[in-house]
Batch of 2 targets.
Target 1
Amino acid sequence: MPRGTGRASYSIAAVSKLTGVSCHALRAWERRYGFPVPGRSESGHRRYSPEQVAQLRQLIGLVDSGRSIGDLIGEHQAGKLACPDVEEAGPDEILEWPPVVAHLLAGEMAQAEAKLDALADRLSDWEMIERVIGPALVDIGERWFRGESQVFQERPATSALLGRLGRMLERARLANPAPRRTTLVGAVQGDHHEGGVLMVCLALELAGWRAIPMGVDLPVEEYRKAVEAWRPDALALSFVLSRNINKRFLELSNIPGVPVFVGGRSIVNHQGLARRYGLIPLTGTLRESTERLAEEVEAWAKPSASGMVLA
Ligand code: B12
């Protein structure tokens, strides 16, 4: 079994998550500029080093300040940019989330929890979501998908991380006794993925909203009834899968009186369709999506009292 260490190598999806650069752009830069050129796993998949991740983050920071990526890569290759020190410039997760995954996949649950506790002491809840739990869940899924781990490893590992998210959500809720607005969050019939739902709930609670987790695999008709009975300020649904997406969007478009937000990995390719049904697609980072959701709900200009019991 692959064991994570400080010299861990990262899959293209993990690098994309850590740097915000899409997998497509990473491959294009490699072809076009010769950077970053990853190593390869035995099965031929790209594997990036922590140094490459730190370098990419450095370059992205400079792009954000208005420079072109081509020029910056050129400068980096010419040795004109100071090399970031991985220990210093690299965030904690570069060195620390792979060991969490390795413990989980080895069935060493107590060690994994201890590692997560130590990280939680240093990192904010947002950092835990974005830099530790999110990438760890994705990495676990990918390893299983590539045949590098088995279902008996993936299942308890995922469940430990979802349990952790649930506990974080509980604490965030206690720390948010007077929420401004209320959102129902869930996944529709046929979609059993809970991770995105829990993360959206946590993000909303951290932003001072009340998020009511409706669970997963729930028929749209139940969401309609909940909206009618509780009059929330928003409905936010996670679409990991795109199965029957037309049908679900049509059903959702018939829920009156509430802005309906759709997010999750399947929405990236169905934003236009969502808009055609009057739904509001949310893509980008969780933080951006949460901010956008709040702005859109304010734009709906509903009176702040939602009529819901916010206990
Ligand atoms: C755990 C898991 C499962 C578990 C779920 C258990 C549970 N209780 O949740 C089980 C075993 C049930 C499962 C089953 C399946 N799964 Co699965 N699963 C995963 C896995 C490993 C992790 C999911 C997760 O928690 N990710 C972390 C979360 C946080 O990421 P996320 O869901 O993408 O959410 C992020 C954003 O999208 C966003 N977001 C999500 N929702 C929303 C909503 C709003 C409003 C907003 C603003 C943002 C937002 O927030 C999150 C943070 O950025 C992924 C692998 C992966 N790479 O993610 C595969 C994965 C999601 N599964 C996949 C598949 C194909 C399946 C199955 C069809 C497999 C099969 N053939 O049986 C079934 C379908 C079951 C069903 N009907 O739903 C695919 C999806 C392919 C796709 N659509 O691109 C993935 C990507 C694996 C893969 N590489 O193929 N799965």
Target 2
Amino acid sequence: MTIKGPRARSASAPSLSFDVLDLEEYHHDGRPHIIRVILLGCSGVGKSALIETFDSSSDSNDELSREHDTNCEIYEKKILVDNEEVVIQLVDTPPYGQENFEENEDSYLTAGDAYLLVYSVTDKRSFKKACELRFKLRRTKETETDPIILVANKTDLERSREIQYEEGRHFAATFDCKHVETSVPLSHNVDELFLGVIRQYRLRKHVRSEDLDANHNHESPRRMLQKRRSSLLKRARGMLGRLLRRKHPNEPSGYRSRSKSCHILEVL
Ligand SMILES: Nc1nc2c(ncn2[C@@H]2O[C@H](COP(=O)(O)OP(=O)(O)O)[C@@H](O)[C@H]2O)c(=O)[nH]1
Ligand SMILES: [Mg+2]
């Protein structure tokens, strides 16, 4: 069986050969919604360790179920996020650059509901790879609304740091993703990361459904209000910007607000 359900969007993408539950069925038979989160990044950055730490620390009665395949490992766990049950499905991919990764790359890049691009702050090369993956996702995904989180792991190894906090944050703010620094031995931000990716998914899903409404010419009053407010704000900011001339010429639009909030997973 291959990955099924609405997440396997690209017909041309090669299928993964592991067994997974039929997500459509799973969603409609009264059980909690499944959100598939794909972890990508160089070998040794800590993808598997992050999953194991999350499994051992998060309080849930449901054990993490595991399925193994030569292409990847899949973990499923039922968790409560903001009083709503959800099944988080974590897909732990093999090292980026290995033969089976290249073969299945399109599947990994299209099959997720959300993506964690993991790098180690002690390894510049892994940061470059994570950035490359961000660009690939931009090209591969049909939608720009799936959450993408740039995960800077191994922050406990401060002395060997090669990538500064600001570098990760700058990239995330420029290319519309979130940025979280984590450490496995310190359990720093690990639960927050996995709960946060669910929150991001929910926030962005809300935006998606509002867009659908707008496409059907039934714009919600809230959306209309937001639009009006944002155009007023834009004009006001434009005027202020001209007066103050503070904006850096290379800053993409929205950079400042994203930069301020790109480490907060509870807001868009
Ligand atoms: N110091 C430190 N070591 C870590 C951290 N995360 C993972 N590791 C170690 O890095 C090595 C590779 O981790 P692993 O999870 O196998 O990486 P993967 O190839 O991305 O799945 C292991 O020895 C882990 O114990 C971290 O946050 N800090
Ligand atoms: Mg691993």
